[in-house]
Amino acid sequence: GDSVTQMEGPVTLSEEAFLTINCTYTATGYPSLFWYVQYPGEGLQLLLKATKADDKGSNKGFEATYRKETTSFHLEKGSVQVSDSAVYFCALEKSGGGADGLTFGKGTHLIIQP
Amino acid sequence: GAVVSQHPSWVICKSGTSVKIECRSLDFQATTMFWYRQFPKQSLMLMATSNEGSKATYEQGVEKDKFLINHASLTLSTLTVTSAHPEDSSFYICSARDSSLAKNIQYFGAGTRLSVL
């Protein structure tokens, strides 16, 4: 079945450091790919998405490129801030049409120190 | 942005009792809602897909008689954990898909922590 693998945390960085959180997936067909972020005490919020190969999703300085050849969707940010501390989830939707539930990775806890 | 409200946020109950969790889309209509379960340090696992006005579709291994889902309106879905036991203790999260726009985005509630004694 479909699966998402992302790097285990916690990941601890200093403010203004470069961030990469790796995410790879296994799925048939052409899934849509997502990154969600969860701040303490809040629900998951969509951070960015990509619906087809070579698409780049971006939001709030975060970027991720849909790489079908490597089945990856790594999350990057050039300069992190303390406010970026949260849990980040990589996810896929197999149909891409919005009718299916999402398959999630285990989440990566990111801690940014001032 | 779109808001999904989930209630209660935390519930403690005795073994053998039933617990109802509500998921509401506050500012949009949702023909489709989803229920997930999350164990500590694990990913969210899809339990079922709830479609307004029809029966829910359950994922393999999820007991439909144990986890009753009702989606009677375009803004409300409920999950009832029947005859709860300690192994049902978990974090339950709902999401709703905005059916008014072709955004194909799921908006998530903040989750409900269920503790069964």
Explain this structure.
The complex is a heterodimer of chains A (114) and B (117). In chain A, a hairpin with a 6-residue loop joins strand 5 (32-38) and strand 6. Chain A is mainly beta and 114 residues long. In chain A, the strands form 3 sheets. In chain A, strands 2, 5, 6, 10, 11 and 12 form a 6-stranded mixed β-sheet that branches. In chain A, strands 3-9-8-7 form a 4-stranded antiparallel β-sheet, with no helix packed on it. Chain A is built from no helices and 12 strands. The mean pLDDT of chain A is 92. Chain B is mainly β and 117 residues long. Helix content of chain B is 0%, strand content 52%. Chain B has no helices and 11 strands. Chain B has strands spanning 4-7, 10-13, 19-25, 32-38, 44-51, 57-58, 67-73, 76-81, 90-97, 106-108, 112-116. In chain B, strand 7 and strand 8 form a beta hairpin. Chain B is globular and about 40 Å long. The relative contact order of chain B is 0.33. The mean pLDDT of chain B is 90. At the A-B interface, strand 6 and strand 11 of A face strand 4, strand 5, strand 9 and strand 10 of B.
